[in-house]
């Protein structure tokens, strides 16, 4: 047990939770606007690739993140165009984006870098770690929360910002309104299409940043299919947290913990599949409990 | 009737246009890479159909596509969306493999039939749960089936690495199934085996079910208009759940055939998105069973041919994934594109006046 549960595990939790937090923040925005985005998996993958591309060619991790964000804008706009403008089924487009991302990134990997499977190079500049001096004094906090890659801290700030955006600004009111009562928003003189576009594009951007964290912060390389289900865990976190940024943040940390635990158990030769399964099982259970409550209420009435 | 015929003709036009545009895009990418697209596509076609062996390889690839495509069609037509084919395929494949390496003494026919039934039951049950949750609790089946995919893949991953690990060598695989259970190969060295015949029979049965029986008609109107079908006295819930079960059973069979025809054991990565490919196939042809068979062949040609294209011209084979996803984007946006075009024309007509 001592081999498994220690401070390093909590530190790893922070690391593994970050891509989930970032992607889930994007996904919950589209979710609030009434669009289920199951293309997050592919969007993360594309972000991871362009992060490496930017960092490698401009010799700057900042440019890597910029490129990942641009790729997120493009893919988010594409998703939005099909779902909002052409009124295509959102999950068909989501699946298409996942397959497209898998093909595109490997294709580009091979035609630009000429390698198969994975690309790593000393010329890929990793994101810098951040040292918070005020944490030095308390050893426990220092070990868990200090010296992480910069996007880890950015993701925490973003959680708050998105919370404020959603619940304290008119934009948030409109985004939530579009998802709930599109007509009401329209009569208020707001163009619901525009709101939906903004949330789709923001969704893409956040997934792009999540990808950049994977390939420049968490690791410093790109591998085929490196999103490895993170988009789906993020989706689970969104549903588990009821699309509320703070709760989704908590869910992401929880799921990140199981991910970190799984990695630790694997390295010790213990079956990790059941701990890794927890996010998915928990999400279905939560859906079931919420649905049952609704059903009881209706029966009560 | 005539209206419907015209509609289908129009759709075929859009389909060919979508494929054409996607191939043009592929050609453009090849040119950007400094390759000759004519050479690339020629290599692709001859690499998929150029010899008996290649043709067999191509045909072998249609089997899982057709089965998972039909699985998608029957659920989508009924208005319930089974995205969980991948998980159902994994569980079905494992169940079939279990029968094959456990009951090795059974007569061949009994063993195989038992394996396929096991795969159908497991796959069907695994689809039944999200169906039930959808129909009685109104829980979005898209979300539950996605979650169920991950759960099934991890669960079989556990089974194959711990309790059912191969007795010798090879990580991530079970023991081989009994020698006699292996489906005979039709062309030496290729992967083409007798499962293609079973798949054809299943395709005909599903076609018959969907197009020629009252069940099929009911599935369709349940999908198109659940209020109308309720007035017509059809039990929507029952039909949606059965659609999920049949869909899951078909994915289970696809898994069983992967084991009995191709790998002869369960592998932890037995399918890298086969069910999602099948879903694309079905969506492109709007869930039409005949279309699924033809489109599966097209996808299989692209898949097999892309390897030859890569060898001969240096164009990475993943280009075809880009082409396939672009086709589905065009088709998914079809009605929207048409609407925009119509609006443009109307606007033009107005300005002329």
Automatic annotation (TrEMBL), chain A:
Pfam families assigned to the protein according to its UniProt record, in alphabetical order: BPD_transp_2
Location(s), subcellular = Cell membrane
Under CDD domains, the record lists: TM_PBP1_transp_TpRbsC_like
Q: Which GO terms describe its cellular component?
A: plasma membrane
Which keywords, in A-to-Z order, does the entry hold?
Cell membrane, Membrane, Transmembrane, Transmembrane helix
Name the membrane topology term. Answer: Multi-pass membrane protein
User: Which InterPro entries does this UniProt record tie to the protein?
Assistant: ABC_transp_permease
A Gene Ontology molecular-function term? transmembrane transporter activity
* rRNA-binding as UniProt keyword: no
List residues traversing the bilayer. 16-35, 65-84, 91-113, 150-167, 201-221, 233-258, 270-291
PANTHER family named among the record's database cross-references:
GUANOSINE ABC TRANSPORTER PERMEASE PROTEIN NUPQ, SUGAR ABC TRANSPORTER INTEGRAL MEMBRANE PROTEIN-RELATED
Protein name, UniProt field: Nucleoside ABC transporter membrane protein
Q: Which organism is it from?
A: Acetoanaerobium noterae
